[in-house]
Every structure is written in structure tokens, then in C-alpha cells.
Amino acid sequence: MSPSAIRHNDRVERDDLFSLYRQMLLIRRFEEKSAEMYALAKIAGFLHLYIGEEAVAVGAIAAIRPDDYVISAYRDHGHCLAKGSDSGKVMAELFGKVGGLCKGKGGSMHLVDAKRRFMGGYAIVGGHLPLATGLAFAAQYEKRDHVVLCFFGEGAVPSGQAHEAFNLAALWKLPVIFICENNRYGMGTPVERAVALYSNLTDKARSHGIDATQMDGMDVLAVREVMRKVVDVVRQGQGPHFIEAVTYRFMGHSMADPAHGHYRSKKEVEQERKRDPLVVLKQRMLDQQMAGEDDFKRVERSVSEEVATAVKFADESPFPPPEELYIDVCL
Amino acid sequence: MLTSYRDALNQAMREEMRRDEKVFLIGEEVGYYQGAFKVSKGFVEEFGPKRVLDTPITEAGFTGLAIGAAMAGLHPIVELMTFNFGILAMDQIVNNAAKIRYMSGGQLSVPIVIRGPGSAAHQLGAQHSQSLEAWFAHVPGLIVMAPATPHDAKGLLKSAIRNPNPVIFIEAQLLYGTKGEVSDADYTIPIGRAEVKREGRHVTVVAYSKMLLLALEAAEDLAGQGIDVEVIDPRTLKPLDVGTLVRSVKKTGRVIVVEEGWRFAGMGAQIAESIYSAAFDYLDAPIVRVTGEDVPIPYTRPLEDLAIPDRRRIVDAVKKLLSDT
């Protein structure tokens, strides 16, 4: 290999890692800004932040094609942004503005970007897992080779609808990948008080005959590597897969809940923050001398400009007109 | 051709599945068993098990799967063995099917038909005898139909399958064997249009699903006594064809609404309210409701008969309304 080829490969890898880093940083800064906007009452209702869990969405979605489907629960900003949705339209949706993805009628928990096959955020725990099997069924029925990524928290794992979905997916070998983001708390209840067999949630899927993998959800490269292999197998029609991504939510369950609260200690949160996916990736790139502090500052500037532009767009977009109330109930 | 309600449904689905590859049938026992009530007789043989899917007994799971498939562009027909079991799928129907278009600001559609029998048959007990149409009609985003005749069943089911919205299509076990004229032709009946099933001058009786048959029998009895009853079948409960009801009220000035379901917050309460709002000045008397009793449906025959409206109660209600006013 010639020296210039090596340099070229290094550059490709470096750009690739910066792209993952930038996506994670965008989610982080976007959500920090949305928390600020919540405090200013520009955003209302429920706002569930994904901060700390960014590597799961970014790593997993980096392993699929743009025409593959993604569906999520109510903590959905990260998945939507990672699928490529315009950050201004997402912010405008949080603001309830007509320029939002759903014209302001969905809100934080119900983002949808159908063009990008982001099929929505759903706010009844466990209720969207059957929908994910249906998206996968449609692909199989029409002999398309799309896969479905279905994200949910560990709180959904013991629900009846989840198990009905696991059973049908396994029975009919549907091309769906169930990605359980185990952040250890369903609201304030720790997984060990909610799920029998809590130490390895993959056993739940295996009991349905679904192949399952537990992975570190704080390392975006590890996530992408696992997901690439899994996506390949599932795309070939060998049936569903279940992923347990071991992760942690740095913020409260929602804006109504302080970062730690009564159900977990400040010390625990501080300890987990050391596994911050942004820090993990940045440290690796610095250690491998792929990039210097200046490079990260450039990314930081570009993300902060994008978030500022998103807020400006959301601010300037009008609220939907009254007649919008009755539109889209039925066609 | 004289055709049963069951065969009319079979024809409707068969024609639509032949017309459009995106249409498929999913539910418990719809395939090799030929349907719990034999509505899908011959389907798995003609269309194969990829389009006629037997499911496990998990209503939330397979209804949700069908809703997801509809979001991705297919046109599922979900057969619920009975609407009593649909209660297990209420989260999917109410929180997903009915709202996905609205929540997505019109980006996604759920073109799905959820069909099966509602109401009581004979002595099936409290958990298998319920009339739940009011639950569904209450939810914005759902279309609700409850046709009574084989002709209407075929035409409305075809419209439902071609409609881009979620449609709740309520049949009745006691209707499956009833017969009527059904055309072999490819016809549809518009959604949201009532039909005057019998013209009359003295009183309007509004009834749907199997209550329509009782209302027509009652009207026949009353005709022998010189009372001229107009019978209207809304056919679609939501959207309700208030215009046709109002035209009748302007003629008769008196209305009786019949339903098998429970009285309190029942479908008939809404039908009455819709008439009051649109035609109060044309009414010569308060609207009378003939309904099921507010009790779980008992198993034993004498009590079951008391819990559900019959022909005699409709006849008595008409006579009382006319004698009181």
C-alpha cells in the first residue's frame, strides 16, 4: 500500500468517526437547548431527554439504509435526528409550530418523518412493538429487503404487547430488530424491581426463539459493529433479532423529574457519566491521534450553529391556524 | 341472487382481494378452519396462506401488526372472532389506528378494516354477547359501520376496504345465516349514507344491525293495526347520515331509536342528540329509546330475553308514543 493510500484510508476513517461524533453531539446539544426552551415555556407537555443514550440511536441507525424503517417510543428525538430529520422541523414540532414535522400536532413524543421512514414515536409503553412487526410484515409480504429497527426502553420488556410482538416476529420470521435501550429505570422503578430475569433481558427474547445480543450501549463503534452483523442476517430473511443495549439516562425521566431524584443517587449518576458516549469516542480519537482539540471545537461550533438555526426556525414558524384542528382526523 | 349475509361478506372480500394484491385477511381461524363463522370459506385455497393468515390468539399483537402493515401501504382486513375479543386490541385501535394520521400531521395513513360479529347470539354468556359500537363511535378517526342486510354488507365492506381510514365493521352472529338479494356485480355503497328501509307517515324508527330486522317485523305488525311506520337504517354509525334522519322526522314528527347495546351512553343517545340538534322544532314528542338493559348479558334464556330488545318492545314503544301524543 502506498503512503498516500494509507493517508486516504485514515482520512475516510476519521471523517466517518467525526460523522458519528457530530450526530451524537447534535442530539446532545439539541436536547440541552430544548430543556432550556422548556424552562422558557416555549416547549410544554412532556419532554423526555435521550442524553446519555445517544450512541444507541446513532450507532444502530448508521448500520442501516436510508430506506429502512425506524420506529420508537416516546423518548424519540435522538432516533428521529439520527434518521436524518431536519433539526429545525424537529424543534418546531416541540414548539407546537406549523413548520414542525407533524405541523405541531404530534409533539415531542410523536415525531414522524415518513419521507425518511421514521415511522413515529409512540407513548403507550409496549404499544408500538406490534406496529414494528407490521412494518416488517409489509416488507416481507411485498418481497422488499427492508429491515425495521424498533427502539424501546427496558420498561416495555415485560409488557404483554411486547411478547405478542416477539412471538409473531419469531413465528413468521419477520425482518425486525428489537432494540431494548436498557437505561436501568422505567421512570423511577429500577429494572430489578420490574422484570424477572432482569440481569440479562436477552433471555426474554430467547424464550421466543429469537436470537439476541447484549451490547455496550455507550460505545457508538461497538453498537455499529454489532448492528452491521445483525442487520445483514435479518435482511437475509433469517428472522428477527433482539438487542439489549446497556446504557444510562443522564437526565431525569422527563423534565418533571430532576437528574437523579429519590430513586437513584447523585453518586450513581456521576459514576455513569464517566461512560458518556461522547467522551468515549472523543478519547479514542485523541488517543489514536486522529484528531486534535481544534477539530472537536470545529464540530462543536458547527453543531451549535445548527441548533441556533433550528431554534430560530421554530421561533419564526407560526402556530397552526384554527382550521388545522379538523384536518387529518379522517381523509 | 338470494345470498346469505355470510356469503355476501365472502364475495366482498374475495372480489377486493382479487382486485388488489395489497389486501390480505388476518385473524384467528380465518385460513384452514375457514373462519370461526365460515365467512372466509375457500379463501386459503384461492389466495394461499401468505394472504390469509391464521394467527395465535393474541388480538393486540395481530391487530397491531395489521396496523403497522397498513402504515407501510398494505390494506389489511382483520377478522376479530368477535368484537368482545377486540377489547384486547383496544389500545391498538384507539391509540394507534385512530390517531396515527392526525398525530403525524397527515404523513401516515392506516387503511385497515377491522371486522367481526358484535352483539348477542343465544346464551353465549356475558363475555361473548356485548354490543360495543358506542365505544368505537366515540373515538375520532374511526369509521364505524353495522350493516343489517346482505346487500348492504357486501357494498359497504367493499367501500370499507377501499377507504384510506380505519374502519370498524360490525356484523352479528345471528345475521350470518339471513338471506337477501345480492348482486354479483362489483358495486359499492357509499360510507355515511342511511337508507329508508320502509316508508311510513306516523313514526320514524331508527335501527341498525340485527335490530333493523326486528324493527321491520314490528312495522309489519303495526301496519296490520293501521299504524304506518317509517324504518331507517343508518348503516354507517359514524359518520352518521343526519340529513336522511331529519328528512324523515320532518314527515313523521316522532322518533324511536332502537339499539341492542346498553342504554347509558349508548349509540342511540347520540343518534337522538343528533336529531334534537338538527330538527328539534319538527318533533311532536320526545325521542324514545328502546335499548338493552344496563346489565351484563345473563346466560339463562328467560333473563337473556329480558336484557335484549325484541319485536314486542318495539311495537309497544310505537303504540305508546302515538297514544301519548
What does this structure look like?
The complex is a heterodimer of chains A (331) and B (325). Chain A is built from eleven helices and eight strands. With 331 residues, chain A is an alpha/beta fold. Chain A has a single domain (3-84, 106-313), classed as 3-Layer(aba) Sandwich (Rossmann fold), CATH 3.40.50. In chain A, strands 2-1-3-4-8-7 form a six-stranded parallel β-sheet. In chain A, strands 5-6 form a two-stranded antiparallel sheet. In chain A, a hairpin with a 2-residue loop joins strand 5 (185-186) and strand 6 (189-190). The termini of chain A are far apart. The model of chain A has no long low-confidence stretch (mean pLDDT 96). Chain B is an alpha/beta fold and 325 residues long. Chain B folds into two domains: 2-181, Rossmann fold; 195-324, 3-Layer(aba) Sandwich (Rossmann fold). Helices cover 39% and strands 20% of the residues of chain B. The longest helix of chain B has 15 residues, at 5-19. The termini of chain B are far apart. The A-B interface holds A 69, 100-106, 110, 112-115, 119-120, 122, 124, 127-139, 141-142, 160-161, 164-165, 167-168, 171, 327-331 and B 24, 50, 55-56, 58, 60-74, 91-92, 95-96, 100-109, 140-141, 143, 164-165.
Q: Which structural category do the helix and sheet elements of chain A fall into?
A: alpha/beta
- H/E series of chain B: EHEHEHEHHHEHEHEEEEHEEHEHEHH
> What's the tally of helices of chain A?
11
CATH class of chain A: Alpha Beta
The domain count of chain B comes to 2
Structural class of chain B: alpha/beta
The CATH superfamily title of the largest domain in chain B: Thiamin diphosphate (ThDP)-binding fold, Pyr/PP domains
CATH topology of the largest domain in chain B: Rossmann fold
Biggest sheet of chain B, strands in spatial order? 3-2-4-5-7-6-12
Q: How would the global form of chain B be characterised?
A: globular
Tell me about the largest β-sheet of chain B. 7 strands, mixed
Number of domains of chain A: 1
Instruction: Tell the overall outline of chain A.
Output: globular
Radius of gyration from the alpha-carbon trace of chain A, in angstroms: 20 Å
Strand content of chain A: 5-15%
In the sheet with the most strands of chain A, the strands line up as 2-1-3-4-8-7
Work out the number of β strands of chain B. 14
**Largest β-sheet summary of chain A:** 6 strands, parallel
Cα Rg of chain B: 19 Å
